[in-house]
Amino acid sequence: MEKSNKKPQKQASLNSVQGCMLFDFLAHIKNIVQNKTRSLSRKDAFSLAEMIMILLFVAILALGSGIILPKKLKKADPQTPHGLYACTVFNNQEYYFSSTSKNAEIPAPGGAGWKLGNCQKNFKVPKYVNLLNVTMIGGGGAGKDASVTWDKESKVQDGDLGVNGDKYYVEYDGWYTIYLFGQYGESSWRSEWDLANGGCNVAPAQAGYPYRVQGEIQLKRGDVIQLYKEEKTPNTGTNFFCADNKHRPGKDEYYKGKDGGKTALLLNGAEFVSVNGSKAGVTVCSSTNPPNCTNRYTVTRGANGTLGKATGMSDILYMDPSTNAAYQNYPSQDGVASIRYSTTKNSSTREFTPSGGCGGSAGQTSATLYPVLRDTIPSITIGIGGTPTRPATSTSFGSFPAAGGTTGGNCKTSSQTSGSDGDAATGIEKLVSTGGKGAPGVGQAGASAAKVNGENGTGYGAGGGGGAIFYTSTPTYNNSLTEEQNSQPIQNGSRKWYQGTGGNGTNGLIVISW
């Protein structure tokens, strides 16, 4: 026992001696400074020797402090550690990940580093940590299924083509009624002419009536009908000049009418129906050349229009104006066409309206600071990604929530037939989160019946892609079935279209860092 106490006693004695010597020296220096202060009235400054003594004092003081002070200071606390703890759900089981690396990254779902275990129980509050940074991401919403409806009234737009090159774009499969009106010829006329005893007027020669065709044709979505009109040309049969004509001064005026040109309709660039325009009226000098107005000129109405061609149509009705007086009441229809959705040939005018599903929205990202008051943390709940039949759920840390995404909450890229993409979660650096792709649907390259289902999201809190509709021809409403039966892709054993489902959202995540 005595041997063990000698070294501490000797060290304490040495410290005591050093302390006494230091304090004696300080007292001596104090006296020098005080004496110098009293003598300042007689001298202007310290001498060189006095300055050296003061510097020596400062050096000895610093040396003495290095011996004594470390013995008195309390040892500092260790540096506060850094760490990261994450938790999620795979296959309906909780997994956790922990790291003390400053550059730690959260692994992808199912990747290396995840350990099976309860999220709350496996988290240990580190020593010397007073505040936790908590970031939560809710479960991602699912993509919405594609759907179809039958509108009560058809939305098919009628088409009227009047200018050469006008086009009508077919949006819905079905039967259409085509009306094609030929071009009118023009009248020819002659001004007054004069003999020695006065003059007379020449009656104008009227043009013929144009031809009209009406018929039914079956068209498909994407077809294009274009109007083609030839220019009218001057009539060559008119002759206003008799051999001995004498004209009243200032009245020698005339007009040779033009013949109507051909009018046609082209289906995807190929002519399928056409009519020839009517001819201009004709006025010619009589070969007898009588000396008075009577029979001086022969005035003749122009020939009526004729049919050019009509192919690929049914229920054709030809309207020859020479035998149908009622048609003569359409003088304004000069080389035009009308296209109407047929109410007699189609089973119904109710419109088939497909709707691609919207993508799911990402789970909400929220963050909070949690003060550590004890060695435990609040309860942890991980949000589960949604499916088309079940909504996504929230992630929570005690009373702090991060809401789950909405089913079909993202419609940014949806169309009539294709689904839109799901959203990706944000808010955590280098987070693995990608929204599911929406199904392509009809009308896009590579589309097929196998590509109508939206893709699942990947990573954490991502939304699923929307479903799509695929069909080769637009379905028509069957009046013998109920509306519910008409809304089914398969009717009487025959598939009318393919209808996809939305993709699933992914599970949420919670990250605790310090």
What spatial form do the alpha-carbon principal axes imply?
elongated
Uncertain ranges? 1-20, 69-77, 326-331, 443-447
Question: Average pLDDT value?
Answer: 80
Report how far apart the termini are: 48 Å
Total helical elements: 3
What does this protein look like?
There is one protein chain. The protein is α+β, with helices and mostly antiparallel strands. It contains 3 helices and 34 strands. The strands form 11 sheets. Strands 3-2-1-34-4-24 form a 6-stranded antiparallel beta sheet, with no helix packed on it. Strands 6-22-8-11-21 form a 5-stranded antiparallel beta sheet, with no helix packed on it. A hairpin with a 2-residue loop joins strand 1 and strand 2. Helix 1 runs antiparallel to helix 2. The longest helix has 37 residues. The chain is elongated. The two termini are 48 Å apart.
Write a concise keyword list for the protein shown above.
single chain, 514 residues, alpha+beta, six-stranded antiparallel sheet, five-stranded antiparallel sheet, 3 helices, 34 strands
List the helices and strands and how they pair.
Layout: H1 2-38, H2 48-72, E1 84-90, E2 93-99, E3 115-116, E4 131-137, E5 147-150, E6 159-161, E7 167-169, E8 174-181, E9 188-195, E10 198-205, E11 212-219, E12 224-229, E13 233-234, E14 254-255, E15 258-259, E16 263-267, E17 270-276, E18 282-285, E19 297-300, E20 306-310, E21 314-319, E22 337-341, E23 352-355, E24 365-371, E25 380-381, E26 395-397, E27 400-402, E28 433-434, E29 458-459, E30 469-470, H3 483-486, E31 490-491, E32 494-495, E33 498-499, E34 509-513
Antiparallel strand pairs: 1-2, 1-34, 2-3, 4-24, 4-34, 5-23, 6-22, 7-12, 8-11, 8-22, 9-10, 9-14, 11-21, 12-16, 13-15, 16-17, 17-20, 18-19, 25-26, 26-27, 28-29, 30-33, 31-32
Helix pairs in contact: 1-2
